[in-house]
Amino acid sequence: MSIEIDKKIFDQFFNENKHLLSYKPKEYGIDEKNFIEWINNYTTPELKSLASLFRKYTRYVSYSEYVNKIASICADIRSKSIEYDTIILLVNNLMDKSNFWVALLHYSFLQDIITNIVVNNLENYTPKNKDEKILGIICDDASYSGVQFILNMGSIPKYMDILISIPYMSTKAKKRITFNEKNIYITKQTEEFKTFGQYIQNDFIGTKKAIDVANEYKITTNLHTIFFNHKLADMVSIYQLVYIFGTSFLPSSSPYFNYKNLSLIKGCSLEHHKENWDIAKEKRKVDVDVQKLVGIDDMCPFPFYKSFVYTYKTNQITNIENLYSNTVNIYDIGLM
User: pTM, whole model, 2 decimals?
Assistant: First the structure.
């Protein structure tokens, strides 16, 4: 169900909370010293070379780079806004999600041109008249497979254009999200990233193709090698345990790696997770997010947006539903 929040109410909420967007988080990075040690923990020359390629394709996105990317995207949206009568920003109902924080960042740059705020999905949004030109903006912080984003997006009305604003997106997600949809566009500033296997397709280790070496050692190559200041994705998206604990990308039974406790993320100490190491090691073949095993304060990188305390009229709120009392339910006014 589409629920539209009154723009004046949302503006009041935003103006009361926009100071949170000035929060300056701790900066992290790639720990080059530990990475060298990690590479040398492999016991064959081929694996050391493959691990060096893993470092080559590891990408860290800082907080400032991330926010600047959104600013650039919003500048482009602003230049195109003149083509539309109505510009809708879609926001998540759950305020501790990264896409809610990202939607607020967009709003900080586009508050004066966004005309409508809709919660959860655009399925039931009805135009005011048949000639109305509508742009719906759907945000997320990053997309790896694209599956979760599509499920959250819901069905898209054919009578509006949809701009997908995801600053960083995998090759697979980009294809999946835009598949056969002529009214769905992805911002041109979106940076596309690949899986480790896609990156090494054209690399060689001696006379062998790097991807063949990876397959020979039964290495999972369909995960991504990117992480962000604000968030470390789960194990089905990236090499989470490799980055957190410095584990091997080899199967757990492989004898070609000498494990030593270290983190490949600069600024992250194993103290954040050491009590969960046995659990993590046990579940490494299972779909598990190691960071969910600890409290928010112990996550590293720290997902600071989850710690934000939002208020409306000085009262703390944890869900956009707290603003619903003065909103418009599309079904209630007989538009559907």
Answer: 0.88
